[in-house]
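Priority: medium. Attachment 1 of 2:
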């Protein structure tokens, strides 16, 4: 992946580049930031270690949320609070209405700070305002929620789309300009969807023929599969040269639809999140790539921002949030943006295995043993 300054929507950077921010996060993940400031914070702590961090995640279809994000946030909150702090967790199961109720309950229960990965970034704004009115800070996690949020932790989401789009162009090579592709975008209620798409189009537009483009209700794989079947009927199975899929859950559904239609050779299909099933599809050659976003850095950073905010540690908070983003309702939101990498057959060992996300045994089950052996993953 080329090193370049990302072009995120509404993104501004302060004097320190992203690499330095990432280095600070890596230090903090190891506990080093605790020793940097200590009692030198510019504000007296509002709370001690006995705090409650509310965590609202959007769905269970994305495997990373239950398997990685929640456990990692819980672990880091505990380590930052000498095992006195706790995480109150709720998953919305893709329902914005359910998430609003969960949010209201956390306000009622007087959580000290709330981390929210919004199902619907716009409809959650009234709950964010209610938390603000109750004196409870809110940090948007992974997706940029509207309303008066205090911070944002995610990735450079336009760069995610660029990486995906570039993978398609590279895979098609000299045939790219005459190739028809299908775009399977995420949910319109997720602000990241527009950023993924904009990044992808910056690589695809003028280089390929976009034959069909769909938005996927609530990121549901079943919706993606239905839309892919429509695309196959409309464009023709043999005419689809590649599929831009915004995430891994949808990529699996797209591949299922292509298989059901009797595809002779799987076209390049992109993804995002490095789900285990997606990594196995990459090994098997069914999925071209996924975008690996360090769950450890994002989840750890969110926990640290939340604890610093509620304890009034301005120095720590500022050190962790060295970028700035705008939402449709707020300007100059302190932000921490974690780098991304294209995961392919060539770097599985140096990414998800090296980081301890999966073991070789997790990936190379009997079904994938031969494929793993073929790429030296044993």
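Attachment 2 of 2:
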């Amino acid at each position: 992946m080329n090193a370049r300054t990302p072009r995120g929507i509404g993104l501004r950077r302060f004097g320190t580049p992203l690499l330095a921010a990432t280095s600070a996060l890596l230090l903090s993940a190891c506990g080093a930031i605790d020793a940097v400031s200590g009692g030198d914070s510019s504000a007296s702590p509002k709370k001690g270690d006995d705090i409650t961090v509310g965590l609202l995640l959007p769905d269970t279809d994305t495997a990373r949320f239950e398997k990685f994000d929640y456990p990692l946030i819980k672990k880091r909150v505990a380590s930052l609070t000498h095992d006195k702090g706790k995480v109150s967790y709720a998953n919305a199961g893709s329902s914005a209405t359910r998430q609003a109720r969960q949010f209201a309950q956390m306000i009622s229960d007087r959580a000290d700070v709330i981390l929210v990965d919004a199902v619907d970034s716009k409809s959650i704004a009234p709950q964010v305002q209610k938390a603000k009115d109750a004196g409870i800070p809110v940090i948007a996690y992974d997706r940029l929620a509207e309303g008066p949020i205090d911070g944002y932790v995610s990735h450079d989401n336009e760069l995610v789309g660029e990486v995906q789009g570039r993978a398609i162009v590279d895979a098609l090579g000299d045939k790219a300009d005459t190739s028809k592709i299908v775009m399977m975008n995420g949910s319109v209620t997720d602000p990241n969807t527009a950023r993924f798409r904009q990044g992808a189009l910056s690589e695809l537009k003028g280089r390929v023929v976009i034959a069909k483009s769909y938005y996927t209700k609530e990121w549901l794989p079943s919706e993606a599969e239905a839309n892919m079947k429509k695309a196959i009927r409309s464009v023709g199975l043999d005419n689809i040269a590649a599929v831009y899929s915004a995430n891994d859950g949808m990529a699996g559904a797209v591949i299922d639809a292509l298989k059901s239609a009797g595809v002779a050779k799987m076209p390049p299909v992109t993804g995002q999140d490095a789900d285990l099933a997606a990594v196995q599809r990459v090994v098997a050659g069914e999925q071209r790539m996924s975008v690996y976003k360090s769950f450890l850095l994002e989840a750890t950073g969110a926990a640290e921002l939340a604890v610093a905010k509620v304890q009034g540690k301005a120095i720590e908070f500022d050190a962790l949030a060295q970028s700035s983003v705008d939402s449709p309702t707020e300007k100059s939101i302190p932000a921490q943006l974690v780098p991304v990498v294209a995961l392919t057959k060539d770097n599985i060992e140096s990414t998800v295995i090296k980081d301890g996300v999966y073991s070789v045994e997790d990936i190379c089950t009997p079904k994938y043993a031969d494929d793993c052996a073929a790429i030296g993953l044993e």
